[in-house]
Input
Amino acid sequence: EAAFLTLKENGRTEKIFIYRDLVLGLNGKPFTIPGDSGALVFTGDDILVGMLYGGRHGANSNVGYIMRTDH
Output
């Protein structure tokens, strides 16, 4: 289930839907390191995917958690 934010700017109202997802690092490498929380995550084409809010660290852990946006 998605949460959403309502933005009002320049007389326009827009809803941004937020989903929780996980992202895997490539080739078993970590996607995050400690201190990355709050970083924005983009595709290779510079399209915003979401904001990083955590991850798993340690041996064989390559998982990052993001709040994904669709708008």
About this structure: Strands lie at 3-9, 12-24, 40-42, 48-55, 63-70. The first strand starts at residue 3 and ends at 9. The CA atoms of residues 37 and 53 lie 5 Å apart.
